[in-house]
Amino acid sequence: MYEDIRPFNDSESVEALKRASTNRLMEPISAFIFPGRDPDILRNTLNTVRGVDDFQTRVMLPAIRSIVGRTTKGLTWEGLDWFEEGKCYTMLSSHRDIVLDSAFIQYILKDNGLPFTEIAVGDNLIYNQFMEDLMRSNRMIKVIRGQSNRELLAVSKELSSYIRMRVTDEENPSSVWISHRNGRTKDGCDLTEQGLLKMLFMSGSPDFAENFGELNIMPTAISYEIESCGIKKAYETYIRKMMGTYSKRPGEDLESVIQGIIQQKGRVHVAFCQPLTREELDYCASLEKNARFRALASLVDDRILKAWRIWPSNIAAAEMLTGRQPSDRHETERFERYLKEEIDSLPKHLGDHRAIREILIDIYAQPVLRKGF
User: Fold this and answer.
1) Which of 38, 43, 160, 349 is within CB 3.0–4.6 Å of 202 for a Cys-Cys bond?
2) Rounded Cα distance, 171 and 165, in Å
3) Which of 317, 268, 276, 244 is nearest to 69 (CA)?
4) Are 200 and 329 in contact (CB under 8 A)?
5) How far is Cα 281 from Cα 210, in angstroms, rounded to an integer?
């Protein structure tokens, strides 16, 4: 059951990582994550892992530690007190970077003696055997997208059932990380999609409060001082505004993964929020059917927004957008230099650069404006 979507077990991961070790991408991956080391060290490690925990401990944690050290000005966190011993959670998370949001969270959990989570990831990233071998060996759940309505209903029910089974399993439960929306936030507004909540509801009790209470929903906020793939998001938002839709080029998701990993991120903060309470769920359950999901989404959004770390870049953007005098001229000048570098990276013929610049400013400003500026 769940064979197409579940993470690999230990024996499957051993075979998968042996396959992955022979891929030609191993050398550049090793060169970036473990600079100065012989790529054969990584290949040999992959050939000798004994299972999922071994892979995550010997390869993934050192890799994330390297990324934190080389591309951030510090990773901080709060809210670990909300985790109760022996209890698993459905972590509904804001989503700004394709792989690092969940990766940083795994790093924090392990560093504080807490179990890893399983991670829901779109099948657009699992597009060949190599990516499937690495990701499903790393506790990743394959979220199947792009189906007909009938097929989408079936895969949504399966995903919902799998997540509930993992969170509630009496013998071997696991928390699950999942974005609170389909794909990364492109416009700076981190809003929970009701469709995701309806998907989670599919597999449980018809009693609304009991259904979501069983999932132990923990809103989670991850904030980057420098927006991951900021100019790409601004350009995509610009095209959507102009054309009504945006069609990705082949390989564009992989480009975003790589850019997100290698770019400088400034400071990064993760906030684990108070899980939704039974009283809150009872209130949602008392509402009319569609209003229930709106209220539930609002609860998640309120937790995430309240916990969101506001950086100087966000404040500078909000001041620029609203015409206020800069509260810190040095930070404003630094943010303007960043904007110039990002816009200068665009080909001259690629859209209205002034409009794209305004969208990029708006992406940074939104958390401040939504909190009340």
Assistant:
1) 160
2) 11
3) 268
4) no
5) 8
Question: Which residue, among 142, 133, 141, has the nearest Cα to 23 in the 3D structure?
Answer: 133
Query: Could you read off the pLDDT of 118-152 as tens digits, one per residue?
Result: 999 998 888 889 999 999 999 999 998 867 788 88
Q: How large is the angle between the packed helices 26-33 and 39-48, nearest 10 degrees?
A: 110
Supply 124's token pair: 């657009």
Closest-CA residue to 126 (of 247, 5, 249, 248): 5
Query: Measured between alpha carbons, how far is 19 from 43 in angstroms, rounded to an integer?
Result: 10
Angle made by CA atoms 156, 161, 167, in degrees to the nearest 5: 130
Tokens of 235: 């350009």
Tokens of 79: 């809210």
What does pTM read for this prediction? 0.94
* Whole-number Å distance between alpha carbons of 338 and 226: 9
Distance CA 28, CA 34 (A): 10
Three-state SS annotation for the chain: CCCCCCCCCHHHHHHHHHHHHCCCCHHHHHHHHCCCCCHHHHHHHHHHCCCHHHHHHHHHHHHHHHHHHHHCCCEEEECHHHCCCCCCCEEEECCCCCCHHHHHHHHHHHHCCCCCCEEEEECCCCCCHHHHHHHHCCCEEEECCCCCHHHHHHHHHHHHHHHHHHHHCCCCCCCEEEECCCCCCCCCCCCCCHHHHHHHHCCCCCCHHHHHHHHCEEEEEEEECCCCCHHHHHHHHHHHHHHCCCCCCCCHHHHHHHHHHHCCCCCEEEEECCCCCHHHHHHHHCCCHHHHHHHHHHHHHHHHHHHCCCCHHHHHHHHHHHCCCCCCHHHHHHHHHHHHHHHHCCCCCCCCHHHHHHHHHHHHHHHHHHHCC
pLDDT digits (tens, 9 = 90+) for 196-252: 999 999 999 999 999 999 999 999 999 999 999 999 999 999 999 999 999 888 888
Q: Which residue has the tokens 């929903």?
A: 217
Phi/psi at 253 (nearest 5 deg)?
A: -60, -40
Strand order in the sheet with 268-272: 75-78, 268-272, 217-224, 90-93, 176-179, 118-122, 140-143
Beta bridge partners of 179: 93
